[in-house]
Amino acid sequence: MSEGAKSLKVAVLGCGAVGSQVVRLLTEQADDLTARVGAPVELVGVAVRRLDAPRDVEVPEGLLTTDATGLVSRDDVDLVVEVIGGIEPARSLILAALENGASVVTANKALLAEDGPTLFEAAAKAERDLYYEAAVAGAIPILRPLRESLAGDKVTRVLGIVNGTTNFILDKMDSSGAGFSEALEEAQQLGYAEADPTADVEGFDAAAKAAILASLAFHSRVTASDVYREGISEVTAADVASARDMGSVVKLLAICELRPGPHGDQVAARVHPAMIPRSHPLASVREAYNAVFVESEAAGQLMFYGPGAGGAPTASAVLGDLVTVARNRLAGTRGAGESAYADRAVQPMGETRTRYHVAIDVDDRAGVLAAVANAFADHDVSIQTVRQEGRGADAQLVVVSHAASDAALSATVDQLRNMDIVREVTSVMRVEGGDE
Ligand SMILES: NC(=O)c1ccc[n+]([C@@H]2O[C@H](COP(=O)([O-])OP(=O)(O)OC[C@H]3O[C@@H](n4cnc5c(N)ncnc54)[C@H](O)[C@@H]3O)[C@@H](O)[C@H]2O)c1
Ligand SMILES: N[C@@H](CCO)C(=O)O
Ligand code: NA
After folding, report:
1. Do the bridges between strand 353-363 and strand 394-401 make them parallel or antiparallel, or are there none, so unpaired?
2. Is 209 in the active site?
3. Which atom of ligand 2 is nearest to the CA of 314?
4. What confidence tens digit (pLDDT) does each residue in 28-87 have?
5. Residue 202 CB less than 6 A away from ligand 2
6. Fewest CB atoms within 10 A around its CB: which of 122, 262, 295, 423?
7. In this predicted model, what pLDDT tens digit does every residue of 173-198 receive, in sequence order?
8. Distance CA 114, CA 112 (A)
9. Taking the model in full, what pTM does it have?
10. Which domains are delineated in the chain?
């Protein structure tokens, strides 16, 4: 480092769970950051909504401001960290920061998944960095591996547990037999789930992350609206028990795949609960942890595991990005921008091939098994396994299909629901992570 190198000035927008930890690390590790970057990284402002709000960190005297727009417009600010979240004012602030010549680090998956291209274009025009490792799976390095380490390989599939709250709830349901509401209540008491848990339990958070993962993995623009989404609020204790009987466990998965389409490979991106075998590496991801499983042509299978949420873990990813963009800044360069050259189409969910697990309560009499098998055959869906358990005059049939189009499988279930011999379809869930 050259003696007296000019300091790089950082503005932090938002001082909540993540922002307060970013401020803490920036302050506590100032000397190490200086050594690693090659110049002092100096915190010059922290934008907050209310000056007198209680905070998890003591912000140095005079740095707090309620004028975020004024802060990002300052001539001396080199680096802006956006940890406010949501669409506005985060988007306008990031665009203003880039236009003003700052490099930007954000953790905002909702914004990136909704309107990433606008931000990437602004970064390209301004010739500045826009980094966002914290936006997917918190502390786990997954975006940089996709963007850089695997840039010479062909990624074919990304399968992830990318929401800690829902993984905690499903893990609780699996380990204790609790129902969804009871497990959600416990997640709220422990501070994993928010008072309004919609974004997590209905899969919106995971779908935003899936869009970001698919865009990077397949060099295409995939937004949240391209991702098929089902949450976990309909998962019952019976589904979880049925999975257990099969040696499987229910997880909320984000699945991004390259699938053959009429004009070359297409991108399929979906978020839904699925049964996976207990022997699958993702089955051992417990509590609120996250993990992302990547398959690529040359590397084979890779797995990334760790804390996907929480103030300090997320701030770790933010700081990692901050060091990188600061180094780039000092070297007068920037990292690779958006890579969307492949421009792949998104495959509609109905055409995506999946497998189903269907548990059906039926009358226990001759011909019932054949009738159920025929319903699958009517939609050209091949059956992989059938298990039957007698229950007096009733029987329960558990059918697992081979891979078929999601539309055909869903039509099969509709037909089963309308059959006289079917008393109730007690569990329908997609199956992943085994042989097709
Ligand atoms: N908490 C996590 O575990 C986690 C993990 C990964 C990514 N993220 C992302 O990080 C971002 C921040 O999340 P968080 O958990 O810290 O949220 P948070 O709600 O704890 O903090 C956001 C803060 O921004 C402040 N704010 C709102 N509007 C503002 C404005 N106009 N100007 C200045 N401050 C304003 C709020 O008062 C609040 O303190 C979000 O994009 C979130 O998705 C969070
Ligand atoms: N609510 C998210 C936080 C990180 O995005 C989760 O539960 O994983
Ligand atoms: Na990450």
Report:
1. antiparallel
2. yes
3. 4
4. 999 999 999 999 999 999 999 999 999 999 998 799 999 999 999 999 999 999 999 999
5. no
6. 262
7. 999 999 999 999 999 999 888 889 99
8. 6
9. 0.96
10. 8-138+312-331 (3.40.50.720), 143-309 (3.30.360.10), 350-431 (3.30.70.260)
